[in-house]
């Protein structure tokens, strides 16, 4: 083997290692049977989620992963494989690839490492069901907003009752109910957040 070839391979191993170190996750997929147009579509879908799909020789990936958290992927490196790197969202590559694989049966997920943990195929399929970061933020915001809305409605009901009846007894009862609702809502939010 010539010196140039060795140098080129060494450069590729460094590139793979650098991409793996910078990535929050890596997913190994077998792409046998996908057309060039389908691979281009998959790359485009991944790029939209700040992820990247690269095809490397298996032996070069194995060299790059020695003594890293990604070394567990080496068992999956048989046949024509590609690596998807998740840069800003650790779950994005698994989510995009799983969705794409439903429409294109030739694409097979073989394994993944997410945030330093080697995942089984079942675990990869589970995390693929998670929403993206923005979706998670909106779910969290909705959970936090719910108790505040209940308290606001309860206070408004108390104020309306005072205006209509001028009755202090009814207002006290409604205030107690509103307080109970607020406490229950807060406990529900804590339980949901803990899940």
UniProtKB/TrEMBL annotation:
Encoded by which gene?
Answer: rplJ
**What CDD domains would the database entry show?**
Ribosomal_L10
One of its GO biological process terms is: translation
Q: Which Gene3D superfamilies match?
A: 3.30.70.1730
* A GO term from the CC aspect: large ribosomal subunit
Compositional bias segments (type: Basic and acidic residues): 161-175, 183-195
Q: What is this protein called?
A: Large ribosomal subunit protein uL10
The organism of origin for this protein = Candidatus Erysipelatoclostridium merdavium
Tell me the lineage of the source organism: Bacteria, Bacillati, Bacillota, Erysipelotrichia, Erysipelotrichales
Per the record, the similarity remark reads: Belongs to the universal ribosomal protein uL10 family.
Which PANTHER family would you find in this protein's record? Answer: 39S RIBOSOMAL PROTEIN L10, MITOCHONDRIAL (PTHR11560)
- Assigned keywords, A-Z: Ribonucleoprotein, Ribosomal protein, RNA-binding, rRNA-binding
User: By its UniProt entry, which InterPro entries does this protein fall under?
Assistant: Ribosomal_uL10, Ribosomal_uL10-like_sf, Ribosomal_uL10_bac, Ribosomal_uL10_bac_type, Ribosomal_uL10_CS_bac
| Stretches the record annotates as Disordered | 161-195
UniProt function note: Forms part of the ribosomal stalk, playing a central role in the interaction of the ribosome with GTP-bound translation factors.
Superkingdom, taxonomy of origin: Bacteria
> What GO molecular functions are on record for this protein?
large ribosomal subunit rRNA binding; structural constituent of ribosome
């Amino acid at each position: 083997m010539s010196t140039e070839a060795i140098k080129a391979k060494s450069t590729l191993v460094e590139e793979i290692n650098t991409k793996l170190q910078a990535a929050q996750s890596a997913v190994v997929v077998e792409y046998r049977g996908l057309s060039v147009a389908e691979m281009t579509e998959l790359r485009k879908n991944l790029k939209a989620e700040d992820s990247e799909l690269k095809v490397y020789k298996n032996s070069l990936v194995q060299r790059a992963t020695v003594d890293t958290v990604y070394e567990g992927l080496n068992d999956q490196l048989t046949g024509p494989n590609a690596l998807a790197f998740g840069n800003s969202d650790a779950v994005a590559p698994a989510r995009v690839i799983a969705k794409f694989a439903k429409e294109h049966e030739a694409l097979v997920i073989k394994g993944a490492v997410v945030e330093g943990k080697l995942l089984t195929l079942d675990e990869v399929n589970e995390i693929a069901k998670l929403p993206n970061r923005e979706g998670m933020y909106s779910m969290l915001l909705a959970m936090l907003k719910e108790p505040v809305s209940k308290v606001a409605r309860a206070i408004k009901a108390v104020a309306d009752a005072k205006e209509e009846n001028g009755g202090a007894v009814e207002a006290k009862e409604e205030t107690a109910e509103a307080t109970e609702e607020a406490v229950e809502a807060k406990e529900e939010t804590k339980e949901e957040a803990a899940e």
